[in-house]
Amino acid sequence: MTKNYTLGKLLLVTTIFFTSCQSGTTTWEQKTSKDPELTKMIAEMSIEEKVGQMTQLNLDVISVGEIYNLKEPHELDEAKLRKAVVDKHVGSILNVGGHAYDLAHWQDLTKQIADLASSENKIPVIYGIDAIHGANYIMEGTLFPQPLAQAATWNESLVERGAEITAYETRASGVPWNFSPVLDLGRQPLWSRMFETYGEDVLLAKRMGNAAVRGYQGDDASDPYRVAATMKHFIGYSWSFTGQDRTPVYIHDRQLKEYFLPTFEAAIEEGALSVMINSGELNGIPVHADYDILTELLRNELGYDGVAVTDWEDIIKLKGNHRIAADLKEAVYISVMAGIDMSMTPNDYSFTDLLIELVNEGRVPESRLDESVYRILLLKKRLGLFDNAVTFEDNDYSAVGSADHDRVNYETACEAITLLKNENNRLPITEGGKILVTGPSADSHILLNGAWSRTWLGRDPQYDDTEKSTLLEALKANYGDRIEYAPLASLDSLFASDLANIKRRSSAYSEVIICLGELPGTEIPGNITSLELPQAQKDLCHGLAEMGVPMTAIMMFNRPRLVADVEPHFDAMIMGYNPGDEGGIAIADVIAGKVNPSGRLPITYPRYVSAHLTYDHKWTEAIASDFSFSAYKPQWKFGDGLSYSSCTYTDVTLQADTIGFEDTIDISCKVTNQSADYAHKEVVQVYIADKVASITPSVKRLRDFKKIEIEPNGSVEVSFSIPASELSFVGVENDWILEEGDFELHLGDTSLPFYLKNE
Length: 759
What we know:
By secondary structure, the chain is an alpha/beta fold. The chain folds into three domains: 36-382, Glycoside hydrolase, family 3, N-terminal domain (TIM Barrel); 406-621, 3-Layer(aba) Sandwich (Rossmann fold); 645-757, Immunoglobulins (Immunoglobulin-like). Helix content is 29%, strand content 18%.
């Protein structure tokens, strides 16, 4: 279990460091066997051709019009395209010109690029895109629940199948490279990209991340229905002190290794073909400038041979934002020597021109270019691009946006929806009178889907697929004329006179469904300064509560917005996340009882503004003002979620009470569905607590889980076999260690002690 790499030796004097790393071949080069065909190709390339391969341009640069102000409808500019591909030898294009295109246009533009590259160059251009929750930049594409919602399913097979469909639809457009999945842990709830993560827990995020990689790449990424996955964002990006995107992160080596690195390690073992680098700074050094992380850790210790691509303008930002470089040329030098392979420049040729200068001046050795170009060409070969740069001419992609893909989307949304409160079994709503539906997310495709939905921020309704149902439309389909809709509030404005009119008619309603929401956003535009629910939505809840009618809340949030002020008003509360294009129907079917909810929270849902503890907090963090261990009081706990059925855990057995370091922890139990009416999907969660350790232990850690389905009144035997090595942690010397001592298993309501012994 010993891993010896050291993180965080961050150099302040880059000149001394970079001079020292130029001599000889790197450890990574010595370890890696080279493809002779690619090695020969690189030997025949000019410096300009090599630097071109390391350049990634925004689609706007080769399109008619100005950057961020393109001609509509979109078309490529032949002269600009020729300059990029032929004159500058650009190796990659990315992005979309402001909004999604239909599949036919995607195929037309990617074929134009591929044809020019094949006729003029010997190396294909690789196109990359952010397909975060489905093929979100293709108008016909399937929009799945956002990753946080997918994690709420606790169902790896659904995540893998969704990624497989995303790969199919993305490759149909001629795009073989996807900038997904996000493997950052969602442990800072204020962060604008919380919804892009697979939650706060290492194990859950590892499994979901690996499922996504398998779905994207399959067994062979050259398959015409697969794409290259990109691990994002290496490393530590998500845990800023302020919660604001791209602001400083400070993580001790031990935490980095135990919490933030394992998702990437697991994805590397799964075969992920590329990695995108953290846009921010870690412990005072921008990661794009950190040789220790980009070369020593990623290459030499983890042995990773995939492409490392920057995020948007991140080399430029070394000068203007981070201010560690006096000019752009120095920023290019620093990042390339740190270990960047490809620069998402992306709006000009400054990186290209300056890197050529640096090589010609002797500051950047040509051998350094060779390392990166080899990895870039290897990615293209692994994707089969040398044989067929676009695959849609020779393969059938008729299933794009198909009913089968919609079915998987619906199943994923159904298993994501998380019922958090249901007093007196208020849900499902079956009999009764009029149902008042209100709130900003009731009739909104935008709030169903969130960011990365046909536009970057997902806020433009002109790109909605109106053939899909909003929640309001789905409720009307289930309940007919029992539904009465009154908006009463936008995201941040209360319609006070309309609310007053509704309150005067309170006796007309048997139920109220309030659909709360949050403006979609990501990255810096998604920053907020407080998790508080907007006052207008609070006032809506307070006002309608005065009617005395049973109320249900639907929460379509990008992150956990605080609801402690309004929660007492509600009989039932559902976390909808951003459930995607089928999410409206899924939520409506949960409310109607057609679907038995089975989602479980992949995060801790905070109760208070500054109380952001995760479930695996330390004991000292639970000490209250009266010195009891009662300070951990989230609104809802990690792993929480209700169903319309209930189950019991019996016969919980630990096969041995003393377990050796080389043994497995063998656990079994019987789970029984108490309902005669519903099949029950249960997430069986295994937690283990280390009672005493040389590094302060967490209260408990998730060590395994399984999602099972139990027929009405049925029972299922469930077993786990967890290697004892899973109880290791990063010790004082920053090595993984396993210690003898007392542990406690938590499964359902049962706790069982055992002893771990080195024997």
